[in-house]
Fold these 2 entries.
Entry 1:
Amino acid sequence: MGRKFLNIEENYEYMEKLIAEFPDQLQEALDIGRKAHIKSRKYIHEVLICGMGGSGVGAHFVKDFVSETAQVPILINKDYDIPDFADEHTLVLASSYSGNTEETLAAYTAAKKQNCSIIAISSGGELMADAQAAGFDTISLPAGYPAPRACLGFSLVAQLFALHKSGCVPNFFEEQIIDTLERIKLEQEDMRSKAEQIAQLMVDRLPVMYGANRTDATLLRWRQQLNENAKHLAWHQVFPEMNHNEIVGWKGDYSQLLVVALRHRDDPARHQLRMDLTREVFQHWAGGYMEVYSRGGSFLEKSLYLVHLGDWVSYYLAELKGENPDEVKVIDHLKEQLKKYD
Ligand code: PA5
């Protein structure tokens, strides 16, 4: 935090470095997770993951990655309050990179009041200080990163370890994360050039992104990275839900929109069929249509492959638009303004 920049070139280089180091971050995250002291818990009825923005998106992946093995439901909470049913049988993961995000802090305080079982995941701030003082389990993330969104590897892997060590999921993920980081190291150059081509198509169009239901977390990550790194609006929706509403909206001159379908070759057959059949609607009305396929073995590996590709797309789009991928001044300004109303 508090890093000074001399010129925009430095910002590009810095974000480029952060994205390029994603495989190393996954490796470091594994080391942190393995060493973390998290007690095993009995009688957990549900897990509630609280976190916003770059510290909240990891929960969406975690929920999807553990869907087949979790012993209890995983719920995502992105607000000040937590549900009334949360009690001592609820495991709450409070995830905030800075440790100072007001919604996450308020949810954490509510979880304390409701006597929930708490694990804090943060690089410091009020959250870490309070959780340590209260004797809760914590996972400390490395401090000094200027952008929480560039710490997805840390927060995602920390959440997986927190769930595993507390007894809610088996450890299916370590091997898959190693496969992922090895693949990304090998394929990064190729991914960068693919991403640059995609970014070129997005410069003068708004991306509308689709995928199968299980791709929701990846689509959300692409959207958030395009928003924050490239200062670009985008939206996303999933199949089959879009076939029941949004498809009807595809009528008229939408030449300013670029449809990007994020696909896995083993997406459920009916989802694939729906995407194939809907393709002609997009091709008729949108300004452009493209399909991007994942690579890898496990669902985790395939998803993080697409995540990494999307991070590069947002980086190249920022560069093409002359935007600083590093700054989110409007978020910082809003947080400052809110403080005046504390
Ligand atoms: O990427 C960002 O800077 C934001 O989306 C932040 O992650 C968000 O504002 C929450 O902050 P924190 O991650 O510190 O809890």
Entry 2:
Amino acid sequence: MKVDVLLGLQWGDEGKGKVVDVLAPQYDIVSRFQGGPNAGHTIIFDNKKFVLHTIPSGIFYKDIINVIGNGVIIDPYSLMQEIDNLNKEGFEVKQNLKISRRAHLILPSHRVLDAFYEQQKGKNKIGSTLKGIGPTYTDKVSRNGMRAGDILTSDFEQTYKNVKERHLRIFDAYHFDYRSVKIDGLNFEEYEKRWFESAERLRTFTLINSEYFLNEQIKGGKSILAEGAQGSMLDIEFGTYPYVTSSNTTIGGVSTGLGIAPRKIDKVFGVFKAYTTRVGNGPFPTELFDDDGEKMRKTGQEFGATTGRPRRCGWLDLVALRYAVMLNGVTDLFMMKADVLSNFNALQLAKKYSIRGEITSEFPVHSEEVTPQYEKVEGWNAGLENVSNKESLPQELLHYIQEIEAFVDVNIKMLSVGPQRNQIIYLD
Ligand code: GDP
Ligand code: IMO
Ligand code: MG
């Protein structure tokens, strides 16, 4: 029996996909527990790049079962597109993918609602990926949603109609022409048609009571890696609300999103970048608006895997990192993209914030008001391409690692120095 969890500790895009892909062979099952197609997890091997949105990152291994858990929300059209792309590259998805019947469905009208709510917010817009995440989780919580298992029932179309008509009444009330919104470049009717075709296809997949399946597997001695999406600072409870996503990206999401009891969880792997990025709006205390930020974006190719938007970049924020480590009970840290900082003479680490003249090392409720207090450390100013073990790492990088470990009180187990599977250095 073994359930380990891997999750992002910043604002998403930490490199979770790469690490899951690397660790997957040690597990029997990889399972997503929250989020939906707002996620974009990049995996690169054999000179090919894949971006997964809803499918767990263990899909490239034939004998690993991949489970989309009940806490995930699914857009059938987006999921089928993802499956078709993988099929084209020679990966047979159907036989090792299982989908929870309890997972909620993103309807075309959820996508339009997402766009509508963002438009309503004007300059305060979240910067959503517009995949329908907020409205779908809202319908789930307000008990108006639709689940994957509904596809298997005879009144599936009626259930769809009821949910959609409720949405149309909202548009009516606001005199909003829902047909004016294009979804993935398609008009509403066209998207809806494809959505239904995809829902039909979804019926032919293995829809299961995943909470039973996973618990039986645990009992039978199988091991599970739970794969988080987004990051702790985008958590609906603990993130920079309201600039967050609509699910629990932190550890509690594993229990509610898979039906796995907390006491069955063993290791908690926390993934973070050697610096910080954020895509979309909202507080970002250590954000850089100068050449250093531009250098990180360029070197790190910091453009969104789902939307292509440039990611905002900044120094490593240890106040936020320690907060995320605490919330999740992280046991092992994985530091990603160390290679991106190779050309800096000096680096800054935020260890405190000042808020209206007061100094704190706690992440506050209103983080837009903080000014980070930095400690300067020396950069390593050396490429890491040819480094394959801890002994050959530059002293300055080892010092950077020690500073982080001492501050958050958890060890960094693995260092990533490039996007490829093998660009990894184990530290203990
Ligand atoms: P995820 O959402 O957490 O899975 O992360 P994304 O895939 O959205 O973004 C991470 C990006 O960084 C991807 O383009 C990866 O290929 C890339 N990447 C991952 N690890 C490293 C690394 O150590 N160095 C560099 N340069 N790129 C990396
Ligand atoms: P992965 O799994 C980075 C951000 C969006 C926006 C906010 C709300 O690849 O790390 P939503 O579409 O959920 O309503 O958007 O959250 N966001 C992400 N940022 N990585 C992600 O996923 C994200 N998923 C959502 O940019 O600011
Ligand atoms: Mg991503």
